[in-house]
Amino acid sequence: MIRKPTPLFFEQGPRAVILLHAYSGSSNDMRLLARRLESEHYTVLAPIFTGHATGDPADILKEGSPQRWWQDTQDAIAFLQQRGYQQIAIFGLSLGGLFATRALQTDADLLGGGTIASPVIFKGQTNVPSAFIEMARATYQAQHLAGEELAQRLVWLQAHLDAQLTAIQAFADTTATHLDRIKQPVFIAQGDADQMIDPRSGKWLADAYPTNQIDFHEYAGAGHVLTVNAAHHALETDILTFLHTIF
Active site includes 194? Predict the structure, then answer.
């Protein structure tokens, strides 16, 4: 029996950090970073976006949307505020970075935050469509689906994926247009061997901010999921250093 991921909530001190996961990912993307922050006495909330981690990748397309995930993001902030947290930072991995950026734009009470391998500046190559289908294939095969049923499910995903990715790109484009609204310090992490999005994405984003205090980090030889790959220790240390400057 494969255990489904659940949201992470580690309560420690008065300083709270929201961690938003990647497209087709889950709170598991953020577990190592969350535990490291917890060990340094940060309270950490890593929600799961609607439609994710249900066991059926089709639910991401059926139940999820940029608007729904934006609501999930706002709900996470409200949850912490309702529990009395006033010092809050927000970070997102890949897709999650779009919503972390939008949150910084719209909520001046957030102290800062940023993106980890996130295509806020949506250009260059992307391998998200093929990676999503491969993730779905692996998920279904782990559930012992095969033959005609597997093929039909993958065909359905292929038919519906583009519309959602187009909606995500529109959300990213709107977000990128209003970076000047963000007054808080911003952290940006990017691996230079990213094979999912263009490895220049982090630098493009850093250069697009008008006047902010930008803390840009590039990780040599690191792929897309910086929170779990060989760069994760360095990333955790850099985020902690950044958090010391904003809290």
Answer: yes
d(CA 176, CA 171): 9
224 labelled catalytic: yes
Q: Which of 72, 194, 198, 215 is catalytic?
A: 194
Backbone angles phi, psi at 17, to 5 degrees: -130, 130
Selecting among 26, 27, 94, 201, the annotated active-site residue is: 94
75 included as an active-site residue: no
* Per-position b or e across 76-92, b if 16+ CB within 10 A of its CB: bbebbeeeebebbbbbb
- Predicted TM-score (pTM) of the model is 0.97
Task: Express each pLDDT in 105-146 by its tens digit.
Answer: 999 999 999 999 999 998 888 999 999 999 999 999 999 999
Question: Which single residue is written with the structure tokens 């904003």?
Answer: 246
Phi, psi at 64, each rounded to 5°: -95, 160
